[in-house]
Amino acid sequence: MAHIDYYFATISPYTYLAGQRLEEIAEKHGATITYKPFDIVTLFGRTGGVPPKDRHPSRQEYRLMDLKRQAAKVGLPLNPQPSHWPTNPAPSSYAIIAAQSAGGGDLGKLVHSITTACWADEKDIAQDDVIRACLDGAGFDPELANSGLLSGAETYATNLEDAVNAGVFGAPFYITDQDDRFWGQDRLEDLDLTLSGKL
Fold first, then answer.
1. CB-neighbour burial class of residue 54 (10 A; exposed 0-12, middle 13-18, buried 19+)
2. Given Cys at both, which of 26, 145, 179, 199 links 193, Cβ 3.0 to 4.6 Å?
3. Can you list the domains of the chain with their CATH numbers?
4. pLDDT tens digits, 144-193
């Protein structure tokens, strides 16, 4: 059975634009997924990247254009400059980590609902009530927002180290158990084709 390590950031617009296509691809191929939220700003500093606010104006302008195009392609609503961004991604990431450990709900739906809250619904995903609502909507106990904070923090830090060691430099990033690497939601088709044996 194929396996995919899914590295992502809850504040990444491109993680949002991935929707639940990864889960659809995994189901198609009978693959399992490990969800690995991490601190993307720290990752940038360790792998030669630059946070959006520190990029040259031409890069910032292009990013906004690209986000609008990508959103139109996948049919998702998106505010490329949401009110509550950037925000602290740690609380939402801890909740995802706790949910993955607890089981019983839909992790793909949880990740998408959290990123949707940021990029389409103008909500602050660092707020407890927002996180709890996302957990509940994805079939998880909302109390997971308050439990396992220490283990969540430890796993969040470990995910960053794993990302650096695995060659991750952005989000979303997908790595198969054969070490095939795919950066960006616009490479999900390549992941699908690779799992099909066509690439």
1. exposed
2. 199
3. 3-195 (3.40.30.10)
4. 998 877 889 999 999 999 999 999 999 999 999 999 999 999 999 999 99
